Amino acid sequence: MKSKNPISAMFGKSPFKAMQEHMRIVHECVVEVPGLFQALIDNDESTLKAQRDKIFEKEEAADLLKNTLRNHMPKSIFMPVDRRDLLELLDYQDSIADTAQDIAGLLIERNMEVPADMAEPLLALVNRCTDASTHALKLIEELDELVEVGFRGRAAEQVEDMVAVLAEIESDTDNMGIELTRSLFAQEETLKPVSVMLWYQLLQWIGDLADYSEKVGNRLLLLIAR
């Protein structure tokens, strides 16, 4: 009997469109993060909670699609790429949404205050990490064409160029994160030790948004190389 699951039906014999849809939902999750931090800076509790709810809702949708995709990933030897490679790519995509959820959860569970002089560079970091997710999405949107041309030719070269740009964005976020961490530690005598620890964790998670986005690009490069 054929499956009546409308989600699995969209996969057909190829998982690539579902991979793209999953990354779109992941990115929708990430684009809510800047508003989350803006609400924190503005001390707007109602907006903070609303942003948290949006992120949690979108992360749940990404999880549902991820699980469905895993369960219906073709095992045929005629797939143009290795099934394990696609599953690893899916995991990196999902890690972006998971990280956004972790950030939102901590900001709600703990009464956090932005340390002095960190608000502007903090928003700049969050927005740059969102740029990384945007770029990762653009890369995944190329999957259809890559499959059609056998992961070769001009399309593959274009993806390689895009991954190089993504690496530059991730490098920017590393540098911005380092500066924010220095600013945080410069204030540690005036902050509670727990606050320093939690802000350090938050900065790591924010950077992870870009780091996992870069891993998405690198995994796509591996598909081309194989």
Strand content: under 5%
SS elements, strand count? 0
Helix content, binned percent: over 70%
Number of domains: 1
Question: Mean of residue pLDDT?
Answer: 88
List low-pLDDT spans: 1-12
Query: What is the terminal-to-terminal distance?
Result: 36 Å
Q: Biggest sheet, open or closed, and with what strands and sense?
A: none
Based on Cα principal axes, name the global outline: globular
What does this molecule look like?
This protein is mostly helical and 226 residues long. It has one domain: Phosphate transport system protein phou homolog 2, domain 2 (Methane Monooxygenase Hydroxylase, Chain G, domain 1, Up-down Bundle), CATH 1.20.58. It is built from nine helices and no strands. Helix 2 packs parallel to helix 5, helix 6 packs parallel to helix 9 and helix 8 runs antiparallel to helix 9.
Explain briefly what this protein structure is:
By secondary structure, the chain is mainly alpha-helical. The chain has helices at 6-9, 16-30, 33-41, 45-72, 83-109, 119-140, 143-148, 153-186, 193-225.
Q: How are the secondary structure elements laid out?
A:
Layout: H1 6-9, H2 16-30, H3 33-41, H4 45-72, H5 83-109, H6 119-140, H7 143-148, H8 153-186, H9 193-225
Helix pairs in contact: 2-4, 2-5, 2-6, 3-4, 3-6, 4-5, 5-9, 6-8, 6-9, 8-9
